[in-house]
Design a protein that fits this description.
17% strand, Aminopeptidase, UCP029730 (chains A, B), N-formylglutamate amidohydrolase (chains A, B), N-FG_amidohydro (chains A, B), homodimer, alpha/beta, hydrolase (chains A, B)
Amino acid sequence: MLLRSGTLTASDGEAVAVDNQTAASGLVFVCEHASAVLPPSAGDLGLSPEALSSHIAWDPGALEIARRLSISLDGLLVHQRFSRLVYDCNRPPESPAAMPEKSEIYAIPGNLNLSPAERYARTAALYVPFHDRVSTEIARIAGEGAKPVIVTVHTFTPVYFGKPRAVEIGILHDTDSRLADAMLEAAAGGPYRVERNSPYGPEDGVTHTLRLHALPQGFANVMIEVRNDLVRDEAGLKAISAYLADLISGALERVA
Amino acid sequence: MLLRSGTLTASDGEAVAVDNQTAASGLVFVCEHASAVLPPSAGDLGLSPEALSSHIAWDPGALEIARRLSISLDGLLVHQRFSRLVYDCNRPPESPAAMPEKSEIYAIPGNLNLSPAERYARTAALYVPFHDRVSTEIARIAGEGAKPVIVTVHTFTPVYFGKPRAVEIGILHDTDSRLADAMLEAAAGGPYRVERNSPYGPEDGVTHTLRLHALPQGFANVMIEVRNDLVRDEAGLKAISAYLADLISGALERVA
């Protein structure tokens, strides 16, 4: 790993963390936007404390949901330890959103006119180790005889560019909609407003992790988006996580 | 490293090789296009044997020049073991030239419409390990008290898109032209036709390695391009390598 200002130094620790390593179900939860933490060497990217703790830095509540799902469904969880402001692990290096110069209403001064060396350093320090680890874990699980199922867990902001969003839970998919279809069918008429490919869809580039790790090998997969005002307290987290766990396990029975 | 069809498998071996590890001069030669070898797992990319051994696959003679320079000037040499047809390590992942769909007059069927997973796999298997190694070696050399000097070594085809090229040796640079200036001054009136930023220049994206490893830290650097018909036999290799060694060492005395 390249050690350079703006990226990881040895004291920053690893970019990727894995929970529930001994999980047996074959479910692999992935949380690319788990953390708002900047590597100390990255400074503040020229952002205010408000911006640095907002949804542009991370998906608030996503890691908590993913952890609960990984426990209740006995799945593995891979999560990124650093903020997507430095590198968004759900985007390839060729995407402008990988090291964004702006996000929603916020300009990100520390990401303006990044040098090739800085782009390289972030790619090598954050993106590649993250997906190498996801890949390694999936290969291990498949090698041990379980059928990998990839579920990425995200949250979204209730107000985007000043506009409130009505959707509460988004079930997103790319070309393989098996698991999403089954979840959407089960969610119809239920307690939450659940929508297909909303508030984002594959045309927004948000299915990158699914494209890397599920589609090439034909593993069942889905991306879940939860409106973050629903998971701001323990009661909300508990309700949403239990709801999603039921949705996933029911859908898996029908898809498998 | 991701193991996947079209990229490296464990039996392919490492992507990067280092010669003259105990070199003491601080010179670091880099040869991104040293090899025409495809990883066995990559097949033939749909190319003819003629195309697979042509300049689109590698820089013929570049590794031999770089090896002679590294010995005569006591420098380290880092070279890529696989063809740039799979990943061109002198380009960032966001460049269309990194995994080119065509090169000069050749379409490259095996590189058409690469999936995100395949792009990721090649980046992770070939690009990142190569530049991580260059970076690690430079940091080690600097840590041991020598002053790193980065020299990338390339060759070019005498006929490009049907047009003969008159230039024999190109001395290329990006924003830091110290070493190139000194070499060009010494080459004036000499035995070879030597030109600045020819047949390519930084506007063609060819100074990526210099941008990664020399410019951010202010290390003296240059990119050398030799017309490959001049190094097709032992006599040519010997003459060009001796000429370049003199040019580099003379220039370093004036720049250092």
